[in-house]
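> example.struct
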């Protein structure tokens, strides 16, 4: 594996870049490194992204220099990654306003788009953007599309969408530039639960037509 890139983020944080791909193995390693770092003295938090880890530390207990020296060893031997997470089967009514247009751009039929979208078991790489929004992937290459040229000002909650190499479900009404393929009745954001997101990093998702 390539040597990680480490750079400071202000005077009490740093970024560890493990790669630049949307890749299940890289994401698993990022979560393993974050878990190992959270056990170290002086670490306030370590948050994994697609292929990176943002580390927040107490500058009175540790330093950028000492962490930068220790992190390559942690990356090489991060320890056990742990279970791959819960499997969620999510029903989708594939009647989204962008289904036909997306199929046309991809040189596919809507039925082929639906079939391809439901084939993989997707990984939850991370949760962000709005509460409960899980970035899922990798999407089959045949479905890769850039984001919409003009984003919508309001996307309904429950909308199932694709963009780039990812798919996702809008948990709340919000602006958005992804292509809307359908909708699900399942709630992604559960404000009275702890944690409030139904989907968590490391979980797996399988879509099926409702």
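> example.seq
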């Amino acid at each position: 594996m390539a040597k990680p890139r480490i750079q400071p983020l202000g005077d009490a944080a740093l970024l560890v870049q493990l790669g630049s791909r949307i890749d299940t193995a890289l994401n698993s390693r990022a979560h393993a490194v974050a878990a190992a770092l959270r056990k170290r003295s002086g670490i306030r938090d370590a948050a994994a992204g697609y292929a990176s880890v943002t580390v927040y530390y107490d500058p009175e207990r540790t330093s950028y220099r000492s962490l930068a020296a220790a992190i390559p060893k942690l990356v090489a031997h991060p320890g056990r990654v742990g279970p791959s997470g819960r499997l969620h089967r999510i029903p989708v009514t594939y009647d989204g306003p962008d289904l036909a247009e997306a199929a046309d751009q991809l040189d596919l039929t809507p039925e082929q788009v639906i079939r391809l979208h439901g084939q993989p078991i997707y990984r939850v790489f991370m949760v962000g953007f709005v509460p409960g929004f899980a970035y899922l992937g990798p999407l089959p290459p045949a479905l890769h599309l850039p984001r919409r040229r003009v984003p919508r000002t309001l996307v309904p909650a429950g909308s199932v969408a694709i963009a780039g190499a990812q798919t996702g479900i809008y948990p709340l009404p919000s602006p958005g530039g992804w292509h809307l393929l359908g909708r699900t009745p399942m709630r992604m954001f559960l404000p009275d639960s702890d944690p409030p997101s139904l989907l968590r990093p490391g979980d797996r998702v399988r879509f099926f037509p409702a």
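> remarks
The radius of gyration is 19 Å.
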